[in-house]
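forwarding from the other thread:

> can someone predict this with NAX?

sure thing
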Amino acid sequence: ATDPLRVLVTGAAGQIGYALVPMIARGAMLGPDQPVIIHMLDIDPAAEALKGVRMELIDAAFPLLKGVVATTDAAEACTGVNIAVMVGGFPRKEGMERKDVMSKNVSIYKAQASALEKHAAADCKVLVVANPANTNALILKEFAPSIPEKNITCLTRLDHNRALGQISERLNVHVGDVKNVIIWGNHSSTQYPDVNHATVTTSSGKKPVRELINDDNWLKTEFITTVQQRGAAIIKARKLSSALSAASSACDHIRDWVLGTPKERWVSMGVYSDGSYGIQPGLIYSFPVTCEKGEWSIVQGLKIDEFSRAKLDATAQELMEEKQLAYLCLN
Ligand code: NAX
């Protein structure tokens, strides 16, 4: 029998956490043959709610679930974890300045970086979901120097999946037949959803999206803003932010990272820049990646036109500014 893997979910009493833990327990993240022990962390005000989630996990009698740790103690939560999904954070509230939100999250991610560094498994893979996701991941990397930088990532897979969804709706094709869209940059409204390399599998073979959607204007305007603003559209409709789609995308992110991306298909992940595509090292930036044997690599050699270049640089610029703001908050 396979040994169970320990998966940490922070902010587990929140709405994404509530959608995510049953998916993990059902095998959506690590596969149908991989037993798991779920570690859930939240803060004192949510301690009772967290107990309730633990009860429900027990009540669901998941065959793959070999144990549940539910705690408000970061050290206990991080002990021995192989995968850490960081969903907990301080949300922006009405009237709050960007700097105040940043300041709260910087201190949370600094503390949790230390807890992971001290207590997690040496090869722990980290996915940051909580916003500002890229910059929280960067702070985590800075304050957990013994965790390899390749192991610290942030979630842009939801944006990636949203882009696939928009193309599939527009062309009335199945979403599984659309592939190789890219989300570049920050998980924010400056992200650049790029279809220049995307294809659709049709009955007469593989076709570029740009050939099937012969509407440059739509692709350059409405498509991009729809993906960028999708989070806001969900809040408007649901009066709550995206949760099931975020949880599902977090499972996709980890599953592809650990088990590998399918042949000829890439996905988007926020990863530590190595200078690819002229994006300066020192930022956590979303790139197209393929994964094999538990390691991601950035897809190289894609042609970047002038329109795309400007978009790639603008979202990098925003990340630079967030990084500066984060450092300001540290001092
Ligand atoms: P909720 O407010 O429902 O849940 C957050 C949970 O985190 C709460 O239970 C809270 O008590 C807990 N928490 C706060 N500080 C903590 C700490 N220091 N340690 C542990 N837990 C802590 O938010 P939810 O809707 O679940 O969203 C969670 C985060 O995901 C937010 O930051 C949100 O902005 C971000 N999102 C990121 C997305 C992405 O694609 N990267 C998309 C969805 C989502 O908006």
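The mean pLDDT is 96. thats all i got for now
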